Amino acid sequence: MPIKALLFDLDGVIVDTAIYHYQAWRRMANSLGFDITEEFNEQLKGISRTESLEIILAHGGLTVSEDHKLALATQKNEWYLELVSQMTPAAILPGVTDFFVAVKTAHLKTAIGSVSKNARLILERIGMIDDFDSIIDGTKISRGKPDPEVFLKGAAELHVRPDECVVFEDAVAGVEAAKRGGMLAVGIGLPSVLTQADLVVPSLAKLTLEEVFTLSAVERP
């Protein structure tokens, strides 16, 4: 099946806002009387704000009301937005700009598939909002990764079949979502971690579009 569309996770693939998430979550945890480490923050990658909050509260041994959870999530997001609002195109990860030049030349369809509700803001700040034909973010989905909803909606908006798509992901949950959706997956990170991916590279700087096209020969269920 020919490859017609590329779907990208945002955080860790196009930009890296993990440090901003960590700083905001740590500030929230500190306000509640405990701390979290960067290592702990790794398990929050690729999952929703609500799920992240539940994990952090459990880590701190706290039980709070639903109203309090909502207030905490809102406060965390405000702190996070303070940080990302200062982002510039300099935040784009190595290799992304050159890779997208090749993507445009090949006339491939593109979409963002991110659980973040701030995806559009980030893309605007880094000057890449017009590089995507569709943006599926946390405002358009009801289920987070590893549920494939975000990528299936992306394929639908691009008017392509799932087996005509390649997903680029840095998180285990995201790779699993792609595979559950019947799509090919390129992992950005370590092969020992992203074991379900069809191909793993350290960054888009280490990947050519020709290598992506070779994935069309990979057998899918």
Automatic annotation (TrEMBL):
Enzyme Commission identifier(s): 5.4.2.6
Cofactor note: Binds 2 magnesium ions per subunit.
Molecular function in Gene Ontology: beta-phosphoglucomutase activity; magnesium ion binding
Catalyses which reaction(s): beta-D-glucose 1-phosphate = beta-D-glucose 6-phosphate
Keywords: Carbohydrate metabolism, Isomerase, Magnesium, Metal-binding, Phosphoprotein
Top enzyme class: isomerase
KW Metal-binding (keyword) present: yes
Pfam family, one: Hydrolase
SUPFAM superfamilies: HAD-like
Residues bound to Mg(2+): D9, D11, E169, D170
Cofactor(s) annotated in UniProt: Mg(2+)
Residue numbers marked as site, Important for catalytic activity and assists the phosphoryl transfer reaction to Asp8 by balancing charge and orienting the reacting groups: S114, K145
GO BP annotations listed: carbohydrate metabolic process
Active site, UniProt feature: D9 (nucleophile), D11 (proton donor/acceptor)
Domain of life: Bacteria
Binding-site positions, substrate: 9-11, 25, 44-49, 52, 76, 114-118, 145
Family of this protein: Belongs to the HAD-like hydrolase superfamily. CbbY/CbbZ/Gph/YieH family.
Protein's recorded name: Beta-phosphoglucomutase
Organism for this UniProt entry: Larkinella humicola
